[in-house]
Amino acid sequence: MNDITVRGSKAGNIISRIVRLDQFALALCLLLLWILMAMLSPVFLTATNILNLFRQSSMVGIASLGMCLIVLSGEIDLSIAPMQAAVGVIVVYLLNRTGSLFLAFFAGLAAGVLVSAIIAALVTKGNIASLIVTLGMASVVKGVVLVVTNSASIQNSNNSLAWIGTGYIGPIPVPIILFLVLIIVFYLFLNRTIYGRNFYAIGGNQNAARLSGLNVIRYKFSAFIIGGLMSALAAIILTSRLNSGQPTAGTGFEMQVISAVVLGGVSLNGGRGTLPGVIIGVFILSTLQNGLTLLNVNSFYQELIRGVVLLLAVYLDGRKMHIKPNRRKELHAENTRGES
Fold this sequence. Notes:
With about 350 residues, this protein is mainly alpha-helical. The chain has helices spanning about 5-40, 45-70, 80-100, 100-125, 130-150, 160-165, 175-190, 195-205, 205-210, 215-240, 255-265, 275-295, 300-340, and strands spanning about 155, 170, 170-175, 245. About 80% of the residues lie in helices and about 0% in strands. The model is unreliable at about 325-340 (pLDDT under 50).
């Protein structure tokens, strides 16, 4: 093994430690937040509230898994909020008309995939920025839902839907089990498969990935499809809990999801981030929302706090993008001096 390889290996180990330290700091923040909320509210650590907290986290978390993949590939999706309403309306309408939960469930998932496929085509084939495409698609979807429903909710008359969002398997709520299963699937996908690891390469340097033979269009297309599928699944869980199709459901949902992903350490520039960090980010935001609600903090102030958290996460992401390259240069200089 030559000196260059040794130095590269040392630098890689140091960078890995830095990543793990980021996750440790996030986990520590989550622990401190739990301790603070427990001190401020005696209700916070009750079994009922903990289950409710995890159930709420599962909806944001499932959508965050898909968003993580999209952001890792260097893109963004702002259409997931109106998708919550659109999928909910479709599921409830079909369930009321046909009585088939199977048909309604997969129609809702198909709607999410269809919208995401259109977005992916415009981004990859039309070479349009995903920020613009998804912002425009969000307006289109929201407008269609409001027109079709005349801005009126559709009440569900079939009890079979309730199990998805409010049912239990043993003592554990169904949404939590779905979330845990998907965490395992996504973790294995991103860390144990070549296809999953290639998303980091594409987000880190798209041109280099293309020159190395990766089909960038296919990877980005699949990222949007998976993201749409996860968003639709989260929408079905929300619809189940509301027991109705609400044309205004999911307002602000995209900011919760993006905040969790960025707070968890996924770079908005793509190519950097870990799934455990995203999960911790989801629970930090959910804990904050849950605790502030228990403390009867005005919803306007809660919105303000979420905005501040998002800005802080983006700021820290920008700082890490500048600090880490400089730190690598310093480590290289130190190694060089030590060897000389």
